[in-house]
Amino acid sequence: MIRVAVIGAAGRMGQTACQAVEAVDDMTLVARLDADDAIDADHLCGADVAVEFTIPAHTEANVHALLDAGVAPVVGTTGWDDAALERVREHACASGVNALIAPNFAISAVLVMEFARQAARYFTSAEVIEMHHPNKLDAPSGTAAQTAQLIAQARRDAGAAPMPDATQMDPDGCRGGMVAGVPVHAVRLAGLNAHEEVLFGNTGEQLVLRSDCFDRSSFMPGVLAAVRAVRNRPGLTHGLAPVLGLEH
Ligand SMILES: NC(=O)C1=CN([C@@H]2O[C@H](COP(=O)(O)OP(=O)(O)OC[C@H]3O[C@@H](n4cnc5c(N)ncnc54)[C@H](O)[C@@H]3O)[C@@H](O)[C@H]2O)C=CC1
Ligand SMILES: O=C(O)C1=N[C@H](C(=O)O)C[C@H](O)C1
């Protein structure tokens, strides 16, 4: 039986994660913590693993507190940069407590990232469009940022030429933001949940990869898989792909 704490338990993802943990036979929910609760042994109630869905400004501090408490974090909160990930990697290795941080736990989104990585070298142009509910705090989404980085790395590895773009005037930033040299566009629209399109273009052809997460339950199989896997994966695991056997 895996003893699980949920941090950010009052939030949209935290509530869904609590329900998912309570619905399976091999886990027991031992703690629901939110913004006013200390992350320490008293409040973690003997948890083995903590699922963390909070806010970008606080997630790193929460993760270090969990590692100090000997509880393996499974983190879905976004807003991580390379330096913060490296600090967690070092802390996890030094403490012997494993951690997993993934910008997206939905199978469709993880596969879009993997397929985008594979496709990138074959196309002249690539752009990412992420579309979310208007309550989202960060832009671009963690998933879009990771997708752009994977595309950029694959293009670098393939020695791809710069993408064609004749734009000379864009005072309002309508061409989107640039993540690792890949244009990323963020839509915030009432009625949406979490969606991403990756567009690849060549002369005369287009490939579109799209993930639609209509409901937060879509993230839960991945969260539960990460909870089951994290204690067997030394150090920091970044992304769900390796847990799904998509190592590259
Ligand atoms: N990796 C993935 O598959 C997914 C990641 N996300 C990410 O998860 C994060 C949370 O998203 P939502 O649940 O929609 O947000 P939300 O705003 O509904 O929930 C955040 C919760 O965290 C709590 N909180 C804030 N500071 C805290 C602290 N220091 N310690 C403990 N709790 C704290 C808030 O009170 C709130 O209950 C976002 O970064 C979002 O992008 C969302 C969906 C899927
Ligand atoms: O805030 C959300 O809702 C989501 N956040 C994650 C992200 O920023 O990539 C994952 C998913 O897109 C939902």
- Which ligands does the model contain, each kind named once? 1,4-dihydronicotinamide adenine dinucleotide, ligand LZUJQKHR
Radius of gyration: 19 Å
Output mean pLDDT.
97
The N- to C-terminal Cα distance equals 31 Å
Enzyme class: oxidoreductase
Function: Catalyzes the conversion of 4-hydroxy-tetrahydrodipicolinate (HTPA) to tetrahydrodipicolinate.
Binding site for NAD(+): 8-13, 40, 76-78, 102-105
Active site: 132, 136
Set out the fold topology.
Elements: E1 2-7, H1 12-22, E2 27-33, H2 41-44, E3 49-52, H3 56-68, E4 72-75, H4 82-95, E5 99-101, H5 107-119, E6 125-132, H6 142-157, E7 177-179, E8 182-188, E9 194-202, E10 205-213, H7 220-229, E11 236-238
Parallel strand pairs: 1-2, 1-3, 3-4, 4-5, 5-11, 6-8
Antiparallel strand pairs: 6-9, 7-8, 9-10
Helix pairs in contact: 1-7, 3-4, 5-6
The structure holds 1,4-dihydronicotinamide adenine dinucleotide and the ligand O=C(O)C1=N[C@H](C(=O)O)C[C@H](O)C1.
Ligand LZUJQKHR binds near residues 104, 141, 142 and 194.
Description of the structure:
The chain has helices at 12-22, 41-44, 56-68, 82-95, 107-119, 142-157, 220-229; strands at residues 2-7, 27-33, 49-52, 72-75, 99-101, 125-132, 177-179, 182-188, 194-202, 205-213, 236-238. It folds into two domains: 2-101 and 216-244, Rossmann fold (3-Layer(aba) Sandwich), CATH 3.40.50; 107-213, Dihydrodipicolinate Reductase, domain 2, CATH 3.30.360. It has seven helices and eleven strands. It is elongated and about 60 Å long. The protein is an alpha/beta fold and 248 residues long. The chain has a six-stranded parallel β-sheet, sandwiched between helices. Strands 7-8-6-9-10 form a five-stranded mixed β-sheet. Residues 78, 103-104, 132, 136, 141-143, 194 line the site of the ligand O=C(O)C1=N[C@H](C(=O)O)C[C@H](O)C1. One of its GO terms (cellular component) is cytosol. It is found in: Cytoplasm. This is 4-hydroxy-tetrahydrodipicolinate reductase.
